[in-house]
Amino acid sequence: MITTVVFDMDDTLYDEADFCRSGFDAVAAFLANVPNLTASPAETQIRDAFGAQFDAGNRTAVFNTALDELGIAYTPETIKHLVRVYREHTPEITLPAESKDVLELLYGQYVLALLTDGFLPTQKLKASALGLQRYFQVIIYTEELGRECWKPSTKGFKHLLKQLHEKAANCVYVADNAQKDFIGPKQLGMNTIQLIRPNRIHDAPPADADAAPDQIIASITQLPHALKHIGQP
Q1: What is the separation, in whole angstroms, between the first and last Cα of the chain?
Q2: Other Cβ atoms within 10 Å of 112 Cβ, number
Q3: Are 93 and 126 in contact (CB under 8 A)?
Q4: For residue 10, what is the DSSP state?
Q5: Exposed, middle or buried, 208 (CB in 10 Å: 0-12/13-18/19+)?
Q6: In 15-165, which ranges are continuous DSSP H helix?
Q7: Is residue 74 helix, strand or coil?
Q8: In angstroms, rounded to a whole number, what is the distance separating the alpha carbons of residues 146 and 81?
Q9: Computed from CA positions of residues 207, 213, 214, 217, in that sequence, does the dihedral angle turn out positive or negative?
Q10: Do residues 6 and 181 lie in contact, with contact meaning Cβ atoms separated by under 8 Å?
Q11: Is the pTM of this model over 0.90?
Q12: What is the CATH number of domain 4-15+94-228?
């Protein structure tokens, strides 16, 4: 019997790309106010350059590549500071109406929890901006337990189960990334559901059966139905 629903956050409860664009806005605003740049592009030009790199699939060197294109000189320390601005800005993101509706529906039927990887200040700022604290009995930021506890590790999930005093078989983990999200919970005996959001960032298939989810849904609105049919033929 499923008693507990555990959610991932990024690209599960909202589109992570919205956070990325919010971060690009913050970095562009910062750069536009730095005096004596090699070039002096407008804030909108900087933001558009970041967005173009992101839309082209650049996930590792957006700032470097965009600044090169804009003719803005930088050092490794500059990039480190821009990454810090990105990670520590207060994000302009909102919880989608369908996610809010489903969370409110499930709140009275199941114990709800959140388990998310990522840099700690960033993840907390996201959760606060989305207003998630009101829905979850337990929130696990795996970074607080140590980087080695990031998925696909089972450590964060074991910590969660201990806090909830619950058996893994009574829990389901709802997440997006089939490369890493479901390996740990499946090893512990948790049920797993992959939510495929249209604008998701991570769309690679699972490497093998051990990483594959038990169910796949195309919208969070399908989750209540999926939960009721776990364990049924």
Answers
A1: 14
A2: 19
A3: yes
A4: B
A5: exposed
A6: 16-32, 43-55, 62-70, 76-88, 97-107, 120-130, 142-145, 155-164
A7: coil
A8: 23
A9: negative
A10: no
A11: yes
A12: 3.40.50.1000
* The pLDDT of residue 207 is above 90: no
Q: Which two tokens stand for residue 71?
A: 């003719």
The CA–CA distances, whole Å, from 74 to 31, 142, 192, 232 equal 11, 33, 44, 58
Whole-angstrom distance, CA of residue 54 vs CA of residue 61: 9
Percent of the chain with pLDDT over 70: 97
By the 8 A CB rule, do 207 and 184 touch?
A: no
Sign of the dihedral defined by the CA atoms of residues 178, 179, 185, 188, in that order: positive
What residue ranges do the domains of the chain occupy? 4-15+94-228, 17-88
- Helix (H/G/I), strand (E/B), else coil: 140: strand
Q: How far apart are CA 123 and CA 88, in angstroms?
A: 10
Amino acid at position 49, single letter: A
CB-based contact 123:9 (threshold 8 Å)? yes
Phi-psi region of 31 (alpha: psi -120 to 50; beta: other; left: phi over 0): alpha
Report, at the CATH architecture level, how domain 17-88 is classified: Orthogonal Bundle (1.10)
Q: Is the pLDDT of residue 36 over 70?
A: no
How does pLDDT run across 44-65, given as a tens digit for each residue? 999 999 999 999 999 999 999 9
**Phi-psi region at 203: left, alpha or beta (left = phi > 0; alpha = psi -120 to 50):** alpha
Report pLDDT digits (tens) over 69-127.
998 888 999 999 999 999 999 999 999 999 999 999 999 899 999 999 999 999 999 99
| 65: Cβ contacts below 8 Å, ≥ 6 apart | 53, 58
